[in-house]
Amino acid sequence: MPELPEVESIRRGLETLLADKPVIRRFEFARKDLRDPMPIRKLKSLEGQSVQAVLRRSKYLFFAAETGGILSHLGMTGSWRTADETRVPPGQHDHVRIEFENGLSLIYRDPRRFGVLDWAKDLISAHPRLDQLGPEPLEPEFSPDYFRMKTRSHHSPIKNILMNAKVVVGVGNIYASEILFRSGVRPGRSSERVTAAEAARVVAFTKEVLSEAIAAGGSSISDYVDASGDQGGFQNHFRVYDRAGRPCPSCGTPIRREVHAGRSSFFCPRCQR
DNA sequence: ACTGGATCCTGACTGC
DNA sequence: TGCAGTCAGGATCCAG
């Protein structure tokens, strides 16, 4: 599943592909639902309209057409590819195709179907999938004071707070472990016991890790590729994620794995307290 | 009002 | 080789 850096990398790829603002000729649906039913008629109402921009909010992509647009969440295994991207042959998990007047076709593939395809007016108007979202991690609104306030008002492991989209969007399971490693805070530490200085470090390293990952084009694990089928490079920079038993890059102590809220966390028991 | 756990689904990998 | 069990990038729903 793509986290924010992967979604942003995909957005940039799509923006380039759709730079000449092509008109949507037609949608093709191989099925009626992903995780939820898709609003097929509503989406088809966008046929004949040009895509003006590809935007991102949280881990959602938004293809902005004229009277509304396509809201896309990739879930764990979703991807957008061009039809002529030959490295991956057409398959049973290609669920939606968007054909443009200029000959381009985009194909949505999602084996696990945890993704979402919805219609939205824009990214500003009320929408049930967007209304409850917290600030973007790279915006100033995600500040040490703000995060400190959130850590004090919750009673759960700091990692859960960091991954809570109502607190801050875009931080998934991989980057949460990486951020907390750099911050020197154990993922399982109860959030109300995180000091103001530590909360400030978590905020700073959230911005740092996500920025570095975006600059590297995201992380490729398993089946992630961007819209051109290219893989990101940040997975080569993981310091703790999926490295249980291997030496901490900083002190050599074996990395430990723990489960919080049903998700694996990785940390160095010596560097993180 | 919160919290953690189960859940949706398929595929890759492990160990017997 | 086969088969069962475990795990996977997310987010929602439900019980306690």
For this entry, give a set of tags.
four-stranded antiparallel β-sheet; DNA-binding; alpha+beta
Would you tell me the overall average pLDDT? 92
Parts with pLDDT < 50 across at least 5 consecutive residues: none
User: Can you count the beta strands?
Assistant: 10
H-E order: HEHEEEEEEEHHHHEE
Can you tell me the overall shape? Answer: elongated
| Helix share bin | 10-25%
- The portion of residues forming beta strands comes to 15-25%
Biggest pleated-sheet summary: 4 strands, antiparallel
Written account of the structure:
- The strands form three sheets. A four-stranded antiparallel beta sheet has the order 1-6-7-5. It has a four-stranded antiparallel beta sheet with strand order 2-3-4-8, covered by helices on one side.
- Strand 2 (53-57) and strand 3 form a beta hairpin.
- It has 273 residues and is of the alpha+beta class.
- It starts with a helix and ends in a 6-residue tail after the last strand.
- Helix 1 (4-17) packs parallel to helix 6 (196-215).
- It is built from six helices and ten strands; from the N terminus they run H-E-H-E-E-E-E-E-E-E-H-H-H-H-E-E.
- It binds a DNA duplex (16 and 16 nucleotides) through helix 5.
Show the helix and strand layout.
Elements: H1 4-17, E1 24-29, H2 40-44, E2 53-57, E3 60-64, E4 69-73, E5 79-82, E6 94-100, E7 105-109, E8 116-120, H3 144-153, H4 158-162, H5 173-183, H6 196-215, E9 256-260, E10 263-267
Antiparallel strand pairs: 1-6, 2-3, 3-4, 4-8, 5-7, 6-7, 9-10
This protein binds a DNA duplex (16 and 16 nucleotides) through residues 1-3, 6, 35, 59, 73-77, 93, 110-116, 154-156, 160, 163, 165, 172-175, 219, 221-224, 260-264.
